[in-house]
Amino acid sequence: PVQILTYLDGVVKVEETELKPRVGFLYPVLSHNISVFINATRERDSGQYMCTVNVVDDATSTGKNIGVINLTVLGKAPPGHPGSLRPRRRVPRDSPSAPAVPPAAPACQLHGNPAVGANVTLSCASKKGKPSPAYQWQRTAPTLQVFFPPAQDRAGGTLKLTNLSLDMSGLYVCVAENRAGSAECSIVLEV
Question: What is the pTM of this model?
């Protein structure tokens, strides 16, 4: 862990990190509220922050008073924002330490003419999501039916239904999901 802010013997010290000009205590420390602020947050500020309080001359408190919070910053710094041009270590999109954004509500669409014997494709696409969401189609009514490749493309969000029959009518639900959350849409197929 990197120390970013300390209070010791009445002195606040902000460590030399990229947060230095943007971080501080929200209230005077002696008010006993040791909330901190981070101004002009950006995606790379995302991560786990830990607060430890060690009381001087009380060895039993050392390592006991610890608070941890996970911060996720959504979006990017506006163009020309100070620091947005600095080189930075890239975290792979699917790395567990990369900030995650849940999928936006996807849009479900029907492609083709749903007549008996015809082929149609159901598509499902979410405009947001980090890492990119995986898609799962299922028919929920009148009976539950799940789908697998090659009929279903989990990465592309499509479901190909071939040689349609009347009993394929029903409510089809698509769930877009990544490690940050999920969202769904549905479409009624009437053959």
Answer: 0.51
